[in-house]
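Me: I keep going back and forth on a fold encoding question. No explanation is needed for now; the record alone will do.

Assistant:
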Amino acid sequence: MSLEANQKLPLVSIVIPVYNGGQYMREAIDSALGQTYPNCEVIVVNDGSRDDGQTEEIALSYGDRIRYFSKPNGGCGSALNVGIANMRGDFFSWLSHDDAYVPHKIAHQIALHQNSERPDAIVFCGYELMDATSKRTGDMRPHAVLKKNQLETPMLPLLRGLIHGCALLIPRKYFDEMGSFNEALPTTQDYDLWFKFFREAPLIYDEQLLVRSRVHPAQDTHRKWHQHIAECNELWTGFLHKLTDEEMTRMEGSPYRFFSRTAKFLAETPYSEAKKKADELAAERLSKTKISIIMPFRDRFPWAIEAMQSVQSQTHINWELIMVDDGSSTPCIELGEAAEADSRIRYVLQPPKGPAAARNNGIRHATGEYIAFLDSDDLYEPQKLETQLQFMEENLCLLSHTSYQRMTTEGELLEVIHSAKLNGNIFPAVIGTCTIAMPTVMGKKEVFQSLSFPENNEIGEDVCLWIELSAIHRWGGLDTSLTRVRISDQSSAFNPQKQVVGLLNIALYCMRHEHLAAHPTWINRLVTAASRILETPLTNAATDSRPPVEAPNPVEHTTDNIETDIRLDKNHPLDVIYRIPEKVSKELGRAVRKIRKAVSG
């Protein structure tokens, strides 16, 4: 963009309010007049200085190079308003009398504005810091605090304290449409007005440091410190109440996360009352979030009652417990009475269809924003829901799981399993390495709307769903033990037969779904693990009906249809399925036959 033809360039009004500015104002005016941008007007407003005429003398010494106005003392906001009322420009640029611009400040920001093709955008930049002697003491680079897309998110840079009024270039339209500075606010009139503007204006951030901002003891924020703190507390508390859910979500992903992060920001300031309010609003948002807990059960009433009581002991009290009775042999009077006594407990009865169908049924009944799961023989720690919900909200997780602690059937505590180290984008490795435990999972309700637990499997059905979800979503992993998982020799994780059936069920499920079948290396791990559990080494061909083969390099297998690939290639790694015996149990036999049928076509 050329800056040579003045008549084609927008006029920029640089407004300099000044009170007793004899010590610094000449440096400010000189920097305004020294701009490389050729179409500027410099307006100096004397706010009733009491320095024996020194301020006026300096201003008048510039003659018609500046436009000079004098008024009774009314504060910085009133002086700025006089400048705005008299400006002729298309853009407003504020320059404090004790600060200075670098020579290309206006030219650079106008070029950015015009190149953006956003005529209503506000441009802002970082700034240098200097002391009373004009010595540089540091700088403020907003891009060191927030990413560029965040810096151009309406209001976010303002509400993270990254906006300096003199670093802005503002289209005149905002003053015409929304008004000017509130003269009743001696020290916060700037942020009060920027808040109104930034709710509407697109933002353009520039990484260059185009302003030199002076810090010295004579500034109003230092001279009127206690008044300034009270004013800021009131200002920021007002911001928190004025923002809409949509605005907070746009800035930080959710209202809770906005309040939480604003509280952390305010903790680094003297604005303790505003910080307290932000904490209160964050806690209020969290407490209003409803969690639906799905707990299927069949008989085993003493454990189911204990599990229910662990939910009732939660520190987060906004929950509903959906207990799905999957065809118990007799009704449980105590569970029924608990449902009648606590309106948060719902008792759903269904014919015996298995845990997957029971969970899916529970999900259909859920009314919470989040869904969590609990097996009837497991327990929640009291802070489970509160801690995991806060973790998910803070990290914008749609899906999460935690670590857990094992316990015996008698409730004796055993080791902690740090399963939550599995987190982030875990697909496709999760196919062969899933350690996610059912009662540790929590997710947004919408996550479970399009996918459900496969109901044709009673072992491994949870892992099948975790794998499906992992192909779509990242997992948040909270490495804190928040659940107690009961184990016995009949648990799927410890009973060899159930473990093998589960592994084969998962492998078969993956083979039957094209987007999962495209990852044979990980599916092979499941089958190999099943083989090892039954102590049938790959090199043992004594009972083989086929000769042993050496698994080829997995990288060579990139087919989109694993079953077709296996029929054509006898050396596929899944050939290990032919080494697994069928006669260990009827259930295992059925699983082996199913997967062999899939392999052989």
Notes: Residues 225-242 form the longest helix (18 residues). The chain has four domains: 6-220, 236-287, 291-486, 496-600.
